[in-house]
Amino acid sequence: MDPPLVNDSSFSAANPSSYTLSEIWPFPVNDSVRSGLRLAVSSGRVFTRPESLEHSGHKDVSTAEESTVTDLTAGWGGARKTRDLNSEDDSSKMVSSSSSGNELKESGDKKRKRCGSESGNGEGSMRPEGETSSGGGSKGTEQKNKADPPKDYIHVRARRGQATDRHSLAERARREKISEKMTALQDIIPGCNKIIGKALVLDEIINYIQSLQRQVEFLSMKLEVVNSGASTGPTIGVFPSADLPIDVHRTIYEQHEANESRGSHPEWLHMQNCYIREDRFEGAKTRKDLAMEHQNAVKEALNALYHHPDDTVRVQADRWLQNFQGTLDAWQARSSNSIISAGFEYDEYTSIQCLHSSAAGLKKYVADNLLHDSSSNLETLIFCSQTLRSKVQRDFEELPPGAFQKLRESLTTLLKKFHKGPPKVRTQISIAVAALAVHVPAADWGDGGIVSWLRDEMNMHPEYVPGFLELLTVLPEETFNYKIAARPDRRRQFEKELTSQMEAALSILTACLNIIELKEQVLEAFASWLRLRHGIPGAVLASHPLVHAALTSLNGDPLSEASVNVISELIHHTASPSSGGISAQTPLIQVIVPQILSLKAHLRDSSKDEEDVKAIGRLFADVGDSYVELIATGSDESMVIVHALLEVTSHPEFDIASMTFNFWHSLQLTLTKRDSYISLGSEASIDAERNRRQHIFRPAYESLVSLVGFRVQYPEDYQGLSYEDLKEFKQTRYAVADVLIDAALILGGDTTLKILYMKLLEANAQTGNDFQEWRPAEAILFCIWAISNYVSVVEVEVMPQVMALLQNLPQQAQLLQTACLLVGAYSKWLNAAPASVSILPSIIRILMTGMGTSEDCAAAAALAFRHICDDCRKNLCGYFEDLFTIYCMAIDGGGGYKVSAEDSLNLVEALGMVVTELPLDQAKSALEKLCFSAASPLQEAAKEDLDKKHARELTVHIDRFAYLFRYVNHPEAVAAEINKHWAIFSFIFDARPWDMRTMESLCRACKYAVRTSGRYIINTIGEMLAKIQFHYQQHHQPCFLYLSSEVIKIFGSDPSCADYLKNLIETLFAHTTCLMTSIKEVTARPDIADDCFLLASRCLRYCPHLFIPSPIFSPLVDCAMIGITVQHREACHSILTFLSDIFDLEKSVNEEQFVRIRDNVIIPRGATITRILISSLAGALPSSRLDTVTYALLALTRTYGLRAVGWAEESFSLIPRTAVTETESSKFLRALNDVAYGADVNSLIGHAEELSDVCRRNRTVQELVQAALKPLELNLVAPVS
């Protein structure tokens, strides 16, 4: 007998002491480090108890149940497989890349987008968040053409809790390339946010839209066939539904030819449905014959999907295959040893009949049998392996209790068969086995769990090692895969099991290192296991053969991707708190850091492959990110790392240079935040140490400013850039701006400004001091704009010269646009400048020039105009007439101005701020002029047929009223104007109440008038509310409700308004409750529901004496109960907030009579409300609403105590124990009971999340729970006993 391939070995315990930084990073690097690596073996275990896994999100059924069949691709010459990302989708938020100045409007228009982690310094940052990236595939994107089988199905490996995260934080941050609109599109397109690469994402979006067009055509033709079939005979279908046996009379192409010959629907795929009842099972065809036909149908569907020339056939084939994957039939395994047939004959199939019809049993042998069929092509193999993997992950609970052994045997046989490939098939089967391990306790795998079982299999069958290594690689990754429908307790237990088996896993990998051909695969598996919270001491890893192998491979050409992954994981491990921190991992750091630093020379090697340079840059960035606190001490050793990172930053490729941007940000935070120095004690010591460190790093940040400034320069061919390329360029500028902000926080804004100004002078001198080559100057002006918030308002050395230079710029559009933005950004400096009054006229002229240059430049100029009028309003009070002239020319388009209607609102806001600074008499006169200019076009329109006007012709002028009422802070003046112009407002109310856009604009103007004027508008408010009541009953505009809520907020406590407010409340709510008597009606009117319950919450807060005793209070609670499960986010939030406000009524109202009325309404409905809330936690609402639902349940429990706990117990008693066990429900009920007795409310949040995970683990369980709770079929009020 051959000796065993691998044996268990133990790690020696380490007893690390504290090290100094010089001991961690000894320089220079020598070969003794490499030669000192060895495997330490002893009999002692060194593993620490793993911490509980912290979950960052919840599993959504929509994600868990997504198709794994195909997405149709461009040209329809092939189909691209959807990448199966084993994690929740990470939505990346992008910085807007609009080319106009509007991208800077919100919140004073000087905010910056932040990085993934919020900075603690209170300053804005433009650092975009990191885009989820998936490595794990090959360096190049796999391509296909029509003749080739699909090749781009890539199993993406998990990393540190997020399966698509193959890189460090810095690596992810540099991949922030896509705009907010692109992100929104990715969320809409199924599976699109799992595609790697921007080009592929765009390709996927285009083809999805094309597929929708083709599906519309397909459905139209199908309807035509159905209609024609009603008179000519039986209906001809397309691919049969997945739960019906089929009878295929022709192959796809035979049917295609037949269609062409008869001239009916050419290139149309016809397959006849045979509706077979159970009493026909003993007919002419046996079960096996029908099953074989079903198997052939799968083959033909796949063939059509990949090769049929007709687009509609491809669409319906894709749909049919997706439906097939969702059925129990997809479970079927190979004929001789199938899961079902081996343990359950046909007459014993009753346990599965309860889930699906008996006809489903006819589709036996399909997936696994096709995998064993030697004639199956790659497309069929991939589909069937995906199907098995998907079913094991999601639907394992559907199998009978004794099916585990047969399933494991079947999957193991397949893994052995495909041990040499195809790799995609082998990966899918490996994932299926790993998912099985998540479901099944370690004891069922034998002593030592799945790793020991795997070791035994490898010992008995060494020829299958490649396949088993794939399984060993994916095992730890599946720990964090929330597509697996495992209970949270079982998932945590699986992580502990794997952690306890780490020793055996690394022993297997060490033994496999002897096989040279498998070295890369072994290192990938090692990297995968390092992501577990293993607790292996640094001293053990430092001398481990696997670490030595990875370090040795760093010197290969090309660079080993697997070795880079290993070293990256080791770096993160050494910095992880769960590993004991830096001091405990010092021996390992001493080994890996010198090896990384020895790669520095490769950064300047032009012959080096770009992907290799990226990998090296990634390692340097990982070192910087992980050890930033050590680096921040400023020791000589740490400065070696800093200089290496500057080398990466200086790389000409932006993708490589930007890997370090996250490090410079983290270092800035560490150097500036007080928490970094808290251990020093006294304030004097803290200040001294902070100043010392910042002084050390000043040269590095000065170099950084010079290194990144040139990257924002427009390319020479900027005019030929595509829309997407231009957005990408803007993202680059934002990223560089964030780095400049980091530098300004270390160097000081004034010092950074001086550096940039010297660059500006150099650029100007190189072009003959006339800025004829505008691109370098524009780039420096952009950099100066980026640091505007950090330049002192009293700076007098550089800014006056910059402002003087701006007046001599050529009228080039991009240059002038940046100049306008810069002027607006330094508006506070302009106000504080000693010569402000003399500078402002020339600045205004620059803005006027900008308004006439281009639309984008005009947008930037209007925005700057607003900033200047905001900050310099006192200096501009005497120039209102001149400003008003500019305003009139801009909105009328005179003088060649190109200010859009939207951007003109910036000018309205600007003048409104100046008017606010005027004395009341002058303010009234000025506001009258402004309002007249807005009212005149409306009055002219009223003389014509107002119904025929486009909404935009009216709203542009109404919105100007809204901005004036909002920003002119003179209540009397605003009240006078709204009273004066109420006639035209009233006329529009009566003329266009059906026009939502016009009504929203009009209500917005009224809202700001009410908010600013307060009681000064009392004479008009009655007529305004009468209009609202009348038109709401006719046209149901939700904006009427929102305007009413603003009125309630201002006048709710005013006794003089009580009568008409009470009438308003009862009228609006009575009509609304009639509109929403079912969840279907609430879903159809989400905006009304949202604004209705916002109004109701404000009534509780501002006028409970009018609302709670009213007859409408009880029906409105019923309406809220109906709408709890509405899927619209804002409507659902408003409803749950309203209910929570009712439960928490004592917090805002102390009157006993109101509490008694509340209890009389809520207590009879308490059981139903609780049941709906628990149903919402269990899947009736998306998991993103979990916090809001939990708080509502929490508020209910705090108010009604044990009675609410009893209501919850009644609800849980209805849920089958197969879905939620007694233990799981008891844990939640205990937490609820603790809250009722006053325990910490935060404890309920975790239990609610766990209950949600249990009930959402797969679609079958979720449907079972919802069917038991029936949240949409409940009587609202319980019968009185």
Automatic annotation (TrEMBL):
It comes from the Eukaryota. One of its GO terms (biological process) is regulation of DNA-templated transcription. Transmembrane segments: none annotated. GO terms for cellular component: cytoplasm; nucleus. Pfam families: HLH, TPR_TNPO3_IPO13_2nd, TPR_TNPO3_IPO13_3rd, TPR_TNPO3_IPO13_4th, Xpo1. SMART domains: HLH. Residues 162-212 form the BHLH domain. Residues 45-152 are annotated as: Disordered. Keywords: DNA-binding, Nucleus, Protein transport, Transcription, Transcription regulation, Transport. GO terms for molecular function: DNA binding; protein dimerization activity. Residues 51-62, 81-92, 141-152 have a biased composition (Basic and acidic residues). Belongs to the importin beta family. This is BHLH domain-containing protein. The lineage of its organism: Eukaryota, Viridiplantae, Streptophyta, Embryophyta, Tracheophyta.
